[in-house]
Amino acid sequence: MQEEIVLGVYREKIDKYLIKNFIEDENLYNIILDNISSMERHIAEENKSFKQIIPYLFIKCNDEYLVYRRTKKQTEGRLHEKLSLGIGGHINPIDTESHNIITGGLERELIEELGLNTNDSLKFIGFINDDSNEVGKVHLGVVFKMEIDNKIDDVVEKQKMTLDWYYIDQIYTDIDRFETWSQILFRNLISTEK
To answer: How far is it, in rounded angstroms, from Cα 10 to Cα 110?
Structure first.
């Protein structure tokens, strides 16, 4: 099996932006696009000087948010059984064929995981950086939001995830069961949404 190649940016290029967990500076988006590099995933997962770029989409339908639980069949063992507000994954070289490698990677992941086409309804929100744990130290989330009219109730990769819909108060109640990126997203943005 061929080693997965992931795209990211060397930390030195973006380090001055990584002083907060939730970053809203749009300049960082273009800096990432201008400095994108590739690395074998098994090396990138241990290389703290390289931030793998992860498009990370949260989906809202009326007053509820899509929540998924990562099963033990997912690749990233450090996140097994955690709840997540964000759907997404690594950017790969195939995504360079898109008009924008970040949104191209996200669109590919959504089709693979949910069978969902974004139809250009993505709204860029900001970035999540979490250097408090081993997963966060080597990843940077690029956060997008999408509002839909009808709930999604099924996934393509059933062995890797299960879906549910939560109101804000339910997320708050279960916040400790969520991965840290979802906690950061919730505390900095979702908990204040109307």
So the answer is: 26
